[in-house]
Amino acid sequence: MRISIRHQLSTTPLPGSPNAVLHLLLTPQSGPTQTVESWSVEMAGIGNAGRFTDAYGNSVHLVNQRPPEGELVVTVEGVVTTVDRHGVFGRVGPGPVPALFKRVTPLTKAPVSLYGRFRGSKDSRIDVLHALMARVGEVLHSPTAVIQNQSQTQSGQSQSQSQGGPTAAEGEEAPPDLPRPPATDYAHAFIGAARALDIPARYITGYLVGDEDDPAAFHAWAEAYDEALGWVGFDAMLGLCPTDRHVRLAVGLDGLSAQPLRAVPAGDGPKEIGVSVEVVS
Amino acid sequence: MGDTTPFDEMHNADGSVREPYRALAQWLDEQPDKALTLMQSDAEAIFRKLGITFAVYGSEEGTEKVIPFDVIPRIISAMEWRKLSKGIEQRVRALNAFLYDIYHRQEILKAGRIPEKLILQNSAFCPEMMGLEPARGVYAHIIGTDIVRVGPDEFYVLEDNLRTPSGVSYMLEDREAMMQLAPDLFSRIKVAPVDNYPENLRRTLESVAPANVSGAPTIAVLTPGIYNSAYFEHSFLADQMGAQLCEGPDLFVDGGKVYMRTTTGPERVDVIYRRIDDDYIDPLTFRPDSMLGVPGLFDAYRAGNVTLVNAPGTGIADDKAVYTYVPEIIEFYLGEKALLNNVPTYNCVDEEERNWVLANIGDLVVKEVHGSGGYGMMVGPTSTKAQHAEFKRKIEARPDNYIVQPTLALSTCPTYVNAGIAPRHVDLRPYVLMGEEVRITPGGLTRVALKKGSLVVNSSQGGGTKDTWVLED
Questions:
Q1: Is the pLDDT reported for residue B227 higher than 80?
Q2: Which of A41, B73, B242, B473 is 20 to 30 A distant from B412 in Cα terms?
Q3: What confidence score (pLDDT) does residue B382 get?
Q4: Model confidence pTM above 0.95
């Protein structure tokens, strides 16, 4: 699938800040599931940016503005061709040893009710992971979700704003037609549960081609490690392994380490201006 | 080790003077009455003049104190030192190899020699360091290894201190003071010099500058500021090296590189000797509320445009829970047996060991896993029953937060106290520099527990210091 993406974010440093520094995780890489045909990251100061590869193998821009003038807008656009590999990313690519992704972070603490039933399972790891994906979907879809608003209570201010998708309502009695929790909650719940089962699992940010049920969005899902297949994607929100509708952007331990835009001074946090993800021929 | 008589570094069991101390003993005999009293008050005046002070956290009587100095030096023979320094070098090489491995392929975990969880779930482990190639492969460039002696030939490493060890300025100033107080002693006894430490520090820092630096690298010392207990040392070392002393706001990142503000405009910085804890060095990557750090500094480091000394994440190698594996670490990376002993350490998570610990707490030393500076610890034999009970409760509530060791009979050195010369317990912190080579300053900082019978040598807990002499052959 040939996909055209345009994504805009912004941040507004506090007035009077002498220097604004931004860390951008907004550059996708070609790999087994996708080929990046073209990609650009535009913002004031980008020409002078520091470029490097971070601990998770992501391509990072370190941009600064001295002094920043008002709102800083980042525009990324490009074309990526994807293939459907039934979620199998494999072992390739830069990045740390898979075991690193067993580290439990504050955002990836899952309740035992989510994964307890899979402990000591005789099934293959892949079967366990599929069952876990279904379990996470079932639990988070249910009106009395056990992991309510986990990301919002524990993460930094930018978390929910940057992940897109509808936000879970707070409150006791949830009506049945309540919007689903954001993608980041599904990813964190799946990752936390997988790690609790001693399976390496990592957080993936990316773009999703929309359809009737799921609008195009900046999206998040998980990848878990299988000795035979390597990294395999699990999108518990959609209840499927990533397809050619998913474009991978960045990898992290959790939504915090894979944030697309971090800034100091933070001001009132990064804002989503808009994202369009379209299939082109 | 528990209940034996402590080793007296000056005297043999029969009261005769041990060889390394003979010349000193003779000199002490020759001193007229009151000479030491005079020396002691002169010493105090010297230290006040040098401005060597330290801050005691939580103390109400002003923030600055002069650290007590004892005028009787501690002496180590050339042969003893050779053995010690070889053991220290082995340890720091192995720990640096361990750090490289942990932040790359993690072979030691794959081999099952250290439990994976102990590293991966450890708060001192820094995932952001994965895959980074530090200059010369060195993570910990400045190390202060805490050592205690319990016998003529028996040394134990208490802690490895690979984060931002302090106290080296006391080592230097103690020597400076001693040379002023008793110049005649130095003409009688050949003592290995320590005053080349700042120059060696500078050479070490220069040797780990990023590869793309041309000409002499620019070095900055990054301090949290005047309210830090070791601020004197930060400013002293910067001054001695001819480097700039900076606080976070003096530095900034531009175009992925680090600069300091100067009166003549921005100047590029290549190596930063940072005396700020990992969590605070960069609000963009670590604690977002840090006001002490430099936003973007860690990214500039990752981009290869600046060297941070020590590297972030070195704390995983001196974590108290990892400490018990150091002999294993030495064997794994160097294929050698450890030359220096580890103190046997009990793990309270294991129920059987914990029960034994709780039953014998009066004989043991309890330390918080992430504590330092003598805070959050309890020495069983010198604590009250109430304190024993308090620590029992603490261990039961959070067994993984404590390690427990036998009470070591720390060696004693003659120390000048109100009653005259009396033995007091001491430890030793030699300072190691690792860049293009390993340089260990002969001696180090001797800390002395001035209270009779006390085993806690920390300056925050009533400890003092002594000049430490390594004899030349």
A1: yes
A2: B473
A3: 85
A4: no
